[in-house]
Amino acid sequence: MTAINFLCLSSLIFMLSCNGKQQEDEKMDKSENNLQPKIIAHRGGAKLAPENTLAAFKNAISIGVDMIEIDVHLSKDSNIIVIHDATLNRTTDGTGEIKNLSLAEIKNYDAGSWFSKDFDNEKVPTLSEVLETINGKVVLLIEIKDGDERYPGLEKKIVEAVKNHDAVKWVIIQSFNKNSIIRIKKIYPELVTFYLSGKTFDQFYSEILEKMKSNEKIEKQFDGIAASHSLLDANKVVILHKADFKVFTYTVNKPQEMKNNIDIGVDGIITDSPDQLKAILQ
């Protein structure tokens, strides 16, 4: 399934392929819309390759995932860096905060050998490098770890990078920072955005439920909600779907948890083990 087909609906939310044969071939599950959840490789599939590296992303594409999730920060010289942590310490042989290092300094370090010697000399990529590598083969889910509050101008730079690579139709932006994704939507309304709800999910869900009960209009500030799998059940997914939100769940790594989330009808499952999820869905 190509990413362009994946996001071909006018809303850019991706539940049906435009390819009729592909729709017929898809297995049905128990979800409300009778579609399988999309396989989302967390950090490129963090159990299979060094997270947030081009090697991981290429591996995820070869497995046949639907989406790849990445994290971004901003370097000292205003380059968008793809890495989960705010420092190099955990996933490279270097140290220091991303915001205090130039791109050239960051590129000096090895981001692969900590995972396996098979990935010696793998480098921390930039968002531009990732966009060039993905190139619409799958959907790219970009998580803003810290928005303009920590990195002034980051949100606009992300939008510019996505537009410059003609990637609007195959990119989704998500963040735990609701203000960040609201600003992204204002900068470029055509971009699909998801709110990573975290500990605020119960409050968010309760507000949606109350508005639906009172027939109050729900003003959508983003297109979807991503919630911990421990907070979701089938009824909540149905309600969120009725409120016109797509639902992702994270981070789902145990086979039984994968099966449970398939059964409750989520739209996408974020996992470190996309190969296992793919096997279950087959």
| CATH class category label | Alpha Beta
CATH topology: TIM Barrel
How is the quaternary structure best described? Answer: single chain
What is the correct CATH architecture?
A: Alpha-Beta Barrel
Number of domains: 1
Q: Low-confidence parts lasting 5 or more residues at pLDDT below 50?
A: 4-32
By secondary-structure content and strand pairing, the structural class works out as alpha/beta
Strand order of the largest sheet: 1-2-4-5-6-7-8-9
Secondary-structure element pattern, one letter each: HHEHEEHHEHEHEHEHEHEH
CATH superfamily annotation? Phosphatidylinositol (PI) phosphodiesterase
Helix content: 25-40%
Shape assignment: globular
Walkthrough of the structure:
- By secondary structure, the protein is α/β, with parallel strands linked by helices.
- It has one domain: Phosphatidylinositol (PI) phosphodiesterase (TIM Barrel), CATH 3.20.20.
- The chain contains 11 helices and 9 strands.
- The protein has helices spanning 3-6, 20-25, 54-63, 103-106, 127-134, 154-164, 178-187, 201-213, 234-242, 255-264, 274-281, and strands spanning 38-42, 67-74, 80-82, 139-144, 171-175, 192-196, 224-228, 246-250, 268-271.
- The chain has an 8-stranded parallel barrel, surrounded by 7 helices.
- 42% of the residues are buried.
